[in-house]
């Protein structure tokens, strides 16, 4: 499990920051940045862009001088860093400095049951609460949450939510929409300050990714709507002119 600690001085930087930028002008114009503190839920099916969006936000945070902890259940350390570098989210230098830390949690192939999944959530919660990073990304919670008891999942999100009362940071959780029953999802969404929903749609014979800004408390821009984008090598997220916003 590759680890590195955030560099000193991060706390003083965080105290002066109220928004995390994506480091992508089109995304920052459309979304307005991610407020600090906040708990964000990012939902979407496979290949809808959840991970790339989180990687873009992580890159933006490091460019601002903020510390990032990226918890991945779907990638190895080297695969994640290589993937980000190929999208021009150059984090290698920040890994070396300690500003960008990666924690890999291997969840595939485990003999899941409700007790093990609930214990996994409890352990992850303790780890996150002890971490001092300004941005923490959990990508993704699907395989664990789908097997845990509803009370454990709610307790996990409630613990994250409560921790923000004492820390000026952002926690982002990605989740596949099929992972939880609808009633549980509604309760989780209500706990979160931000709720972004990603999907895939066809336009003129081409598959594009859509980002619906369902909720974002404290954002600089008071707009809700949909951003249409694609992911291109060496560029990352490229927002399409098909984007539509509403006040």
Q: What would you say this structure looks like, in words?
A:
Strand 10 (224-232) and strand 11 form a beta hairpin. The chain has a single domain (10-246), classed as Rossmann fold (3-Layer(aba) Sandwich). It has helices at residues 10-15, 25-31, 50-63, 77-86, 92-97, 114-130, 142-145, 150-163, 182-191, and strands at residues 19-20, 34-35, 38-43, 68-72, 100-104, 135-139, 170-175, 194-203, 206-216, 224-232, 236-239, 244-246. Residues 1-9 have low confidence and may be disordered. Strands 3, 4, 5, 6, 7, 8, 9, 10, 11 and 12 form a ten-stranded mixed β-sheet that branches. Strands 1-2 form a two-stranded antiparallel ribbon. By secondary structure, it is an alpha/beta fold. It has nine helices and twelve strands.
Write down the Rg: 17 Å
Mean pLDDT: 89
What can be said about the biggest beta sheet? 10 strands, mixed
Structural class estimated from helices and strands: alpha/beta
Quick one: overall form?
Answer: globular
Roughly what fraction of the amino acids lie in strands? 25-35%
Residue share in helix? 25-40%
CATH superfamily: P-loop containing nucleotide triphosphate hydrolases
Which residue ranges are poorly predicted, with pLDDT under 50 across at least 5 consecutive positions? 1-9
């Amino acid at each position: 499990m590759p680890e590195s600690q955030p560099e000193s001085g991060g706390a003083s930087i965080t105290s002066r920051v109220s928004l995390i930028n994506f480091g992508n002008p089109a995304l920052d114009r459309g979304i307005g940045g991610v407020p600090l503190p906040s708990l964000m839920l990012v939902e979407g099916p496979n290949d809808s862009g959840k991970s790339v969006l989180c990687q873009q936000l992580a890159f933006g945070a490091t460019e601002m001088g903020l510390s990032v902890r990226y918890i991945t259940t779907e990638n190895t350390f080297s695969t994640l860093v290589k993937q980000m570098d190929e999208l021009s989210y150059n984090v290698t230098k920040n890994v070396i400095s300690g500003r960008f830390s990666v924690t890999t949690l291997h969840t595939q192939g485990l003999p899941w049951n409700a007790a093990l999944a609930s214990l996994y959530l409890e352990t992850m919660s303790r780890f996150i609460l002890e971490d001092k990073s300004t941005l923490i990304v959990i990508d993704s919670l699907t395989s664990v949450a789908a097997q845990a008891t509803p009370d454990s999942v709610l307790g996990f999100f409630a613990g994250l939510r409560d921790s923000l009362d004492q820390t000026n940071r952002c926690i982002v959780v990605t989740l596949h929409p099929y992972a939880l029953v609808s009633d549980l999802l509604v309760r989780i969404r209500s706990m979160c300050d931000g709720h972004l929903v990603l999907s895939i749609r066809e336009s003129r014979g081409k598959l594009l990714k859509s980002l619906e800004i369902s909720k974002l408390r404290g954002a600089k821009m008071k707009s809700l709507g949909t951003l249409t984008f694609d992911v291109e090598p060496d560029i990352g997220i490229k927002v399409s002119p098909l984007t539509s916003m509403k006040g």
